Amino acid sequence: MRVALLPTEAGGSYRLTILALATIGLLVSALPVLVVATMSFSASDTSGFPPESYSLRWYGDVVRMFLEEDTSSAQSVVDSTLTSLLIALIVMVISTVVSVPLAYALARGERRVRAGMELLFTLPLVFPLVMLGIAFLLIAESLSLDLGLWRIAIPHVVLVLPFVLRNCLSAMNGISVEIEEAAISLGAPPLRAIWDVVVPLMRAGILAGLIFALIISFNEFTITFFMYTIDVSTLPIWMYSRTVSSLDPSTLALSVFIIVADVLLIVLVDKLIAGKGNLF
Q1: What would the DSSP string read from start to end of 79-112?
Q2: Residue 42, strand partner residues
Q3: Which chain positions lie within coiled-coil regions (predicted)?
Q4: What is the C-alpha separation between 112 and 233, in angstroms, rounded?
Q5: Can you list the pairs that 246-250 forms with residues at least 24 positions away whose Cβ atoms lie under 8 Å?
Q6: What contacts 180, CB < 8 A, 6 or more positions away?
Q7: What are the tens digits of pLDDT across the range 218-276?
Q8: Is-contact 253 58, C-beta < 8 A?
């Protein structure tokens, strides 16, 4: 039997209120994206909103920036993009390697220990990102070591680990211990049962965590602003350098490309969580 979530009889005001709040929430969340997307099609050199005329000139500039050598900045947009992708790849691998066994241990462990560990790994989300950036900067400077990419990758791992862990833990909660015990009773060693039975059943949660790690690390700015050097810089830092004195409209067009990629990845995550996608 179908149940109506929004009452239609004697509840018209309630239905209108819910729809109005949903519309306001959608507009507020989508408004910055709509403004950036609209201004990226401006034909003028100024950044006024709304644009007086429209063209694709800034999208052409973005394509040229990736195809031609850039001598105007210390690090080109190509180098910055490759650095962001490489750091995101490192973060994805490390956070997944840590989160999968940790999620298994927490799901199969004592409830009290699990609650404490979950709270501990949530702490990076509680602290302001500025404080985390300053803390990692002080640590890096005190070490006096040339960390290279790891100077940015390590803080990113700390930042994305709660998201990856929670996705893996959610997947692990849906796996009954009886399935694992059945594999062991049929002769499989415990580690073989985990690898052949448990990990494949966690695949949707693992891939969702991987995608969240990619999106968060690739777009992260606040902590990276404290940690980047002239030799190691990411795409968000490059975009900021192009807008700090005056807004470069080509960065708006580049932002649209990033937003489209992020939306496609989030749609993929939704399909995976709903069981409509596949990992391997």
Answers
A1: HHHHHHHHHHHHHHHHHHHHHHHHHHHHHHS-HH
A2: 54
A3: none
A4: 42
A5: 247/47, 249/39, 249/40, 249/42, 249/45, 249/47, 249/58, 250/58, 250/61, 250/62, 250/65
A6: 193, 194, 197, 198
A7: 999 999 999 998 888 899 999 998 887 777 888 889 999 999 998 898 888 777 766 54
A8: yes
Q: What is the rounded CA–CA span in Å between residue 181 and residue 105?
A: 16
Q: What is the pTM of this model?
A: 0.82
Whole-number Å distance between alpha carbons of 185 and 223: 49
> What is the C-alpha to C-alpha distance for residues 49 and 51, in angstroms, rounded to an integer?
5
By the 8 A CB rule, do 171 and 228 touch? Answer: no
Amino acid occupying residue 14: Y
Residue 171 to residues 101, 109, 110, 176, 219, Cα–Cα distance (Å): 12, 15, 18, 11, 25
Comparing C-alpha atoms, which of 259, 23, 243 is closest to residue 267?
259
Q: Which two tokens stand for residue 55?
A: 């063209």
CB 240 within 8 A of CB 221: yes
Q: How far is CA 41 from the centre of its chain?
A: 26
Tokens of 130: 């500025």
